[in-house]
Design a protein that fits this description.
It is built from eight helices and six strands. It is α/β, with parallel strands linked by helices and 224 residues long. α6 links the parallel β2 and β3.
Length: 224
């Protein structure tokens, strides 16, 4: 029986890079806006990042504005826009480049399926500057929120780009949505577990459960 090419399809956030790094990058960008227009006793970006690292606070902007005595009706939307529109300062996680190189050296192909606001995901992707060919690169928001995972559209598009007898792997981090569609399509699913990940990696049941859990992408090489 002919053995098809292996296609390793990756999520972006908390898979190829740490989403927490992106959050801190965005907090620094929002803080820079405050420092420019309403300077205070210490850099706002550093204050926000320290709060995030200490508490992972979801109301960081509101707390900053309260501390600085700034009007939330004036400032909150500006801070959120600065966060969303900033140019990310992120890099691949340790070992990612070596793992991708080893996979391609073994003849594997690479692809991307990632959720998130389209412009934000495109900026993240550009910031990573990965020196490998990925095809296709599917940002699910290209078709709108209804097509985010676990909708199968993006995974079916990857399969159309690499016809049988290709074998498919999906590598992600979020068991609430990442693995449902590829599992139903017969893919092998792999969850990357890291203590810094924003989404919990607790056990998932049924179609949401990955076939394998790894601590780093280096473990993928044995599958290629």
């Amino acid at each position: 029986m002919k053995v098809g090419v292996r296609v390793f399809c990756f999520d972006l956030d908390d898979t190829l890079f740490s989403e927490s790094d992106y959050v801190e990058s965005g907090l620094r960008a929002a803080g820079a806006l405050v420092d420019s227009d309403a300077p205070g006793p210490e850099p706002a970006g550093a204050w926000l990042v320290a709060l995030w690292r200490r508490e992972r606070a979801r109301d960081a902007f509101q707390r900053l504005l309260l501390w600085r005595g700034l009007d939330a009706e004036v400032w909150l939307a500006r801070l959120k826009e600065a966060y969303r529109a900033h140019q990310p300062e992120i890099q691949p996680r340790a070992g990612v480049l070596d793992a991708l190189r080893a996979l391609t050296d073994r003849g594997a192909r690479l692809a991307i399926v990632s959720d998130g606001l389209l412009d934000v995901q495109r900026r993240k992707w550009a910031a990573l500057r990965l020196p490998f060919a990925f095809a296709p690169i599917v940002f699910t928001d290209e078709r709108g929120r209804p097509y985010w995972k676990p909708h199968p559209w993006a995974f079916e598009l990857v399969m159309q780009s690499h016809p049988p007898p290709a074998r498919f792997f999906y590598v992600g981090d979020n068991p609430t949505k990442d693995f449902i569609a590829p599992n139903r399509l017969g893919w092998t699913t792999v969850m990357v577990r890291d203590r810094r990940n924003l989404h919990p990696t607790a056990s998932a049941a049924g179609d949401a459960s990955p076939h394998r859990t790894v601590e780093s992408l280096a473990a993928l090489v044995d599958l290629a």
